[in-house]
């Protein structure tokens, strides 16, 4: 009986630690993507984390995109979707604490972006 209680407690603790680590993902992140013709497009991501759900927005020179169907997979990995020109763009991400790498599948091409956390102005 004690073994079951200890095992259950450890599993719950591990899950809480994983989700606590990824809550550092919440907030504003900036980066850019390089287009096929070599132009850099500045992007600002605003991630919201609620348990294992990820939502938010992406701000680009073309406007604002809504992040939906976002999922926190573990303490580092996450997925989400955005709609660009009426096309669903699936994205994967990896959280490193001080940076985030996002890979989006846009028009059949993988587009990589490295994001840095924007400091709070409190």
From TrEMBL:
Signal sequence segment: 1-20
GO molecular function: hydrolase activity
Keywords: Hydrolase, Signal
Name of the protein in its database record: Glycoside hydrolase
Species this chain originates from: Mucilaginibacter corticis
């Amino acid at each position: 009986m004690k073994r079951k209680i200890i095992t259950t407690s450890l599993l719950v603790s591990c899950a809480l630690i994983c989700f606590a680590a990824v809550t550092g993902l919440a907030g504003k992140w900036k980066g850019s993507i390089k287009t096929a013709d070599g132009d850099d497009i500045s992007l600002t991501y605003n991630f919201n984390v609620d348990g294992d759900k990820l939502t938010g927005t992406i701000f680009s020179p073309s406007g604002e995109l809504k992040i939906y169907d976002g999922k926190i997979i573990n303490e580092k990995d996450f997925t989400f979707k955005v709609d660009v020109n009426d096309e669903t763009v699936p994205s994967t991400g990896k959280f490193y604490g001080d940076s985030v790498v996002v890979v989006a599948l846009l028009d059949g091409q993988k587009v990589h972006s490295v994001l840095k956390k924007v400091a709070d102005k409190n």
